[in-house]
Amino acid sequence: MQQIVIDAPAGQVSAELKRRGVAANANVHVVVEFLDDSSLPMAAIAEAGKALHWLAAEPDLYSDADLVESSS
Fold first, then answer.
1. pLDDT in the model for residue 19
2. Pick from 7, 63, 66: nearest CA to 34
């Protein structure tokens, strides 16, 4: 197994693999580490991943009345 470490913007990963000679149809195992982890807070990650979109299909399960105000 050969390992390549790429430090590039996410949108440039495919181009960087191609530049390094990795065929477009090659199977690869990818591990993503964010260099600036403050740029993706958990709420944004959940929203981008559509983690809670299933709630729209179940409107009778939860409503705004279920919200609890934080005391802090």
1. 92
2. 7
